[in-house]
Design brief:
alpha/beta, 8-stranded mixed sheet, 2 domains, about 325 residues
Length: about 325
């Protein structure tokens, strides 16, 4: 069963008619030619309607797409793009955190270390992975894995999809802020290439902790921000119902962030979002990551660190014209 978002109702109505017509044709043995023509007309109408809707999504609608339950998850990307994957667990200090997964494998034939947030899809999986919200041990595991990548001269590929780091008491007691800072620092000091992809939500420090990379790519309908729209609305207006206003004001879409040079490239999604055609979306992501890794290949550790440093220092930098002399 396909899950429709509120703004997709016109498409849902047409696709429901298509399903009913197909079921009727199979049950009654109606004229195949006339049924086929009607089905073709309805499918074309649905495709055009979907394209029209997705060509003008507002930031709040993109937020809903980024959170769609059928959007590809970390394990989906690994399963399709990484062969010989060996998962590595634990931070060697406290325990295992299933919100961040990682390991060694071959990304489209290239040896890499891959890490990423895993939200899960079923209720049981979501509880196991804590909805992709990592605790300190998740970020300490990420640091441990990045240390291994540097030791064995392996590029790092990260997949970011989290509403933010877990804000629970236990996480704070175990040093959540410090763990996030250390993970971010490790990204910035890596002697090997690193490419990060924002595949769904990129929320706050929980996202940037594994996204301070040489190249930051972002799927077309993903979001990336310092706080969720609901959280920003609660702070600014004491009303989380104004999340739509906050989403618009915060410039959280890939298109806005591309203009602000926060990200390096936007990866196009199939019409209707990555959740409609996961396999096609995953293949496109794979090609974009491979291209980014190619551009970083051959750079020395010092060049990689310098590029990363300049990239992040440049965010928010602007120039003004000098005032005319008297």
């Amino acid at each position: 069963m396909r899950t429709y978002l509120d703004f997709e109702k016109p498409v849902a109505e047409i696709e429901t008619k298509i399903d009913e017509l197909q079921a009727l044709a199979e049950a009654s043995g109606a004229d195949a030619i006339s049924q086929g023509q009607e089905l073709s007309r309805l499918k074309t109408k649905a495709e055009n309607q979907l394209a029209a809707i997705y060509s003008k999504l507002d930031p709040w609608q993109k937020t809903q797409v980024a959170r769609h339950q059928d959007r590809p998850r970390f394990r989906d990307y690994v399963g399709a793009l990484v062969t010989d994957f060996v998962e590595l667990s634990g931070d060697r200090k406290y325990g295992e955190d299933a919100a961040i997964l990682g390991g060694l494998g071959k990304f489209l034939g290239r040896p890499v270390l891959v890490i990423g947030h895993e939200k899960g899809r079923t209720t049981a999986e979501r509880l196991k992975h804590n909805f992709g919200m990592a605790r300190p041990e998740g970020y300490r595991k990420a640091v441990r894995l990045m240390d291994l990548a540097e030791k064995f001269s392996l590029p790092v590929v990260s997949f970011v999809d989290t509403a933010g780091a877990y804000p629970g008491i236990g996480a704070e007691e175990r040093g959540q802020a410090e763990a996030i800072a250390r993970s971010t620092e490790r990204c910035l000091t890596l002697a090997v290439p690193m490419v990060a992809v924002i595949t769904g939500e990129g929320g706050s420090g929980g996202a940037i902790a594994i996204a301070a990379a040489n190249k930051v790519l972002m799927l077309e309908h993903s979001i990336y921000s310092v706080i969720s729209p609901e959280g920003a609305a609660s702070i600014l207006w004491k009303d989380s119902a104004r999340a739509k206003d906050a989403a618009t004001a915060m410039k959280i879409t890939a298109q806005d962030l591309g203009e602000l040079h926060v990200i390096d490239a936007i990866i196009p999604e199939p019409v209707g979002g990555a959740h409609r055609e996961p396999s096609a979306a995953i293949a496109t992501v794979g090609a974009a990551v491979a291209e980014a890794l190619d551009t970083l290949s051959g750079k020395s550790p010092d060049e990689l660190r310098a590029q990363r440093r300049e990239r992040f220092f440049a965010i928010g930098r602007f120039e003004t014209e000098a005032a005319p002399s008297a």
